[in-house]
Amino acid sequence: MNPPIRRLAVALAATALSATLLHFGTGLTPVPWLTWLAPLPVLVLAHHAGARTTFLAASAAWLGGETAMWGYFLDTVRIPPPMVVSLVVGSALLFGLVVLSSRALVLRGRPLTAAAVVPAAWVAVEYASSVLSPNGAWWSLAYTQADVLPVLQTASVTGPWGVTFLVLGLPAAVAAFFAPRAAGRLRVAVVAATILALALGYGAWRLRAPYGEDSGSEKVALLAIDRMKDGWVPVASAEGRALLGRYTARIPGLAARGARVVVMPEKVFIADDATLPVLAAPLARLAADHHVDIIAGLILKRSGVLRNAAVDFPADGSRPVEYFKHHLIPGLESDFQPGDRKAFVPGSGSRWGIAICFDLDLPDLVRDYRRSGATALFVPGWDFGRDRWLHGRMAITRGVETGLTVARAARDGDLVVSDANGRIRTEAHSADAPFVSVLAALPTRSAETPYTRFGDWFAWACALLLLLALASLTRIRAAAGGHPSGRGTQADGDDRIIRVRPAAR
Q1: Can you tell me the mean pLDDT for 17-27?
Q2: Are the CB atoms for 395 and 416 separated by under 8 Å?
Q3: Can you give the residue ranges of the CN hydrolase domain (predicted)?
Q4: Nearby residues of 447 by Cβ (< 8 Å), 6 or more positions away
C-alpha cells in the first residue's frame, strides 16, 4: 500500500472508530466507559496528521456519532429541521475546531495546554449552550456518567461541567502524551493522573456512608399509568373521571404503607376553573383523610392561558398549593405560559420543593431551591419513552449537584427516587404494568455542596483557560514569524503525516 493510501486508510479508520464509540457512548442510553474512549482515535490522529485531515476527521466523527439523535430530535421532540441541522452540524464543526486547536498546541511544544484545551473548550461550549439555548444543559456529556457514582460526585463541586472535563480531559491527555514530541510528556501524565485521582478520591469519600443509612420514617410514593393514546384527558369527561378513579383507588393503600407524599405524573388531566373541582374534591378529601400530600400534574386553563401545573393537596386539609412549570419545552409547549415562583409542600418547613419534568434539565432552578432550604424535590414528569433513562438521570444529576433527594414520577418514563449522592432508592418503568407504583423512604440527610454556593464557577474557569490557551497559541505563532508550526514542521494545511523534531528544551 503506497503512503497516501495508507494515510487515508488510517484517517478513515480513526474517524470510523471515534464515530462508533460516540454513537454508543453518548445519546439516550450511553455506555459510560465508551464515552471516555470515543475522542481518543481522532485525537491521536490529530497529532500525526495535517490540519485538513484533523478537522475533517474530528468533525465527521462527531457527526457520525450523533446520527442516532436525528430521529429523536425531528420525530420525538419535534425540533424544527433547521434547528436540528444547526445543533448537530454546528457541534460537529466546533468539535473539529477544538481538536484542531489541540493539534496546533502540541506542534508548538505545549502538550499540557493541548490536553487541557479540549475539555476546557467543550465545557465552554456546553455552558454557553445552557445559557443561550432554551434546551439548557440537555446535551452535556456529564449525563453519560450518571450511573458511575464516583465520577458523578464531581458535579457537587463543579456542576456537570467538571464531569465533562474529566471525560474529555483523560483521552486528550493520553493523546498528547503519545504525540511525537518528547518534551512535556511526564508533566502531562502527572497532571492528568493527579486530577483523576483527586476526582475519584473525592467521589469515594462522598459515597463513604453505607447505602440506606440515613433513611427516615417519612416515605414518598410515585405512581403512573401509561395510556395507549397520546394527549391530555379532560378531567370532567367520562375517560377523565375513570382515570381519576384508578389513581384515587391506589392512594389509600400507599398511605397505609407509610407514604407521606404521593406524586402523580405530569399533565395527567386538563381542567379549567369550572372543571377543576372534579379533580380537587376527591384528592383533597383523600389527602386530609389519610394524612398524605398528593401532588397531581395537570394542564390548568385560566382566562384563556394554559399552564403546566403541579397542584399539592395538603395532608392538613389546607388550601392547595399550585406550582407552574418554569422551563417549557421549545415548540411542544409554546402555547403555555411559564411560571416564575417556587412552591413547597405545606408543613415541610420549606424542606420539600415541587418542580416539573423539564425544569430539571437545567441546573439553575434546582440550585435556587437548595439555597432556599429544600432537601427534597418532588417532580411530576412525562417523558417520550425512548429518552426515559436520560431524563431520569438528568434529575439524579441535579440532586448530586445540590445535595438533594429527587423523587420523579414520569409516565412514558421511569419512576425514580435518588438521594443526595445519586444512589437510586427505588426505580420502575411506567410501561412495566398497567399501573405502576413505588414507595421509598426519604433520606433524612441532605448535603451542602460547593456548586450550590458558588454556581458555575468551573465553567467560567474553563472559559478563561480556553482564552489563555488561544492567546498563547496566537503569541507563539506571532513569535515564529507567522510560520504555521513555529517549530520547523510541515505546514498546517499539509495532509501528510507529520513528523515533528523534538523540542530543544
Answers
A1: 97
A2: yes
A3: 221-444
A4: 156, 206, 403, 420, 421
pLDDT 10s digits, 266-288: 999 999 999 999 999 999 999 99
Determine the Cα–Cα distance for residues 402 and 404; give it in Å rounded to an integer. Answer: 6
What 3 state SS string does 346-401 have? CCCCCCEEECCHHHHHCHHHHHHHHHCCCCEEEEEEECCCCCHHHHHHHHHHHHHH
Query: Given the C-alpha cell 503506497, which residue does it identify?
Result: 2
Integer CA distances (angstroms), 309 to 229, 326, 337, 479, in order: 21, 10, 10, 60
Place of cell 420514617: 217
Query: Which residue, among 57, 28, 29, 24, has the nearest Cα to 41 in the 3D structure?
Result: 57
The average pLDDT across 453-464 equals 98
Structural class in CATH, domain 215-444: alpha beta
Summary mean pLDDT of the chain = 90
User: Which residues have a Cβ under 8 Å from the Cβ of 324 and sit 6 or more positions away?
Assistant: 300, 307, 308, 309, 337, 338, 339, 340, 341
The three cell numbers locating residue 233: 384527558
In the block, cell 395538603 appears at 314
What is the 8-class DSSP label of residue 345? -
224-260 b/e with 16+ CB inside 10 Å = b? bbbeeeeeebbbbeeebbebbeebeeebeebbeeebb
Gap between the Cα atoms of 248 and 240, Å rounded: 12
Burial tier of 480 (Cβ tally within 10 Å: 0-12, 13-18, 19+): middle
Helix (H, G, I), strand (E, B) or coil at 171: helix
CA pair distance 237, 255, nearest whole angstrom = 27
Q: How many CA atoms lie within 13 A of 261 on its CB side?
A: 29
Of 393, 390, 391, 419, the closest CA to residue 406 belongs to 419
What does the pLDDT read at residue 479?
Answer: 67
pLDDT digits (tens, 9 = 90+) for 148-204: 999 999 999 999 999 999 999 999 999 999 998 657 889 999 999 999 999 999 999
Q: Of 310, 273, 269, which Cα lies nearest the Cα of 293?
A: 310
d(CA 241, CA 269): 10
Q: Which three cell numbers stand for residue 469?
A: 490557551
> How far apart (Å, rounded) are the C-alpha atoms in residues 318 and 298?
20
- H or E element, residue 300: strand 293-302
For cell 395537570, the residue is 298
339 near 310, Cβ under 8 Å?
no
Burial 127-144 (b: 16+ CB within 10 A, else e): bebbeeeebbbbbbbbbb
- Write out pLDDT tens, residues 201-214: 999 999 997 665 56
